[in-house]
Task: structure prediction
Amino acid sequence: MDYPNGQAPGAPIRSGIPEHGRIPKYYAVKARIAVLVDELGEGGLLPTERELAQLHEVSRETVRQALRELLLEGRLRRQGRGTVVAGPKLEQPLSLASYTEGVRRQGRRPGRNLIGLDRFPCPEALAAEVGVERGEPVWHLERVLLADDERVGLESTYVGVGRVPDLDTAFDPDSSFYAYLRDALGISFGDADERIETVLATPREALLIGTPPALPMLLIHRLSRDADGRPLERVRTLFRGDRFSFSAHLRGEGQG
Result:
């Protein structure tokens, strides 16, 4: 089929313009700035708010609202006192592949900053999810996720101490936890349940990730089991909504 007005597949129909043709002034300015963003390319420096307001003959507040939306969508990013064109979003597969593997596939350098590794008696609400009895020791591993040294997420992992007894001494917190389980302990993943929702970061989370509290986040809850079907870990991961998208390969019923 021919796409309306030459728009790309997957783009908003009619570029988001209602059939009656009336659109907010800021949205029209946003559409024009988006064209400039494409022309400048990644790292290109945007004109100042004053220059954009003069160019499009609108108020600076109208320009500000247009820029806010482009920033939230990940098309732009702040750099010093200026605004530049952001690179493409990181695409993370919805699979049992680790964060490290997903980032490396896109030619980026994964990393993590350790926030804390704590050991505590497992509360009842968590016990069944990680396959331990109430009161047995569990680890909580919290790390900031990096891509080329840019902070892009925050990950909390809960796992029973009995499954990974030397996590505090034998594991490099900057490395892949899944690779450690596989290579050092011989633990293979079998399957997992995931739930994804959109949330706003708490003040603490926003500070750790380095984002404004109003920036939408993608939150993934994961319950993983090993190859024998035993509960293994519970993971809560926040990803920056302006820097991440997710993909999955779906199969029809009856295809295994």
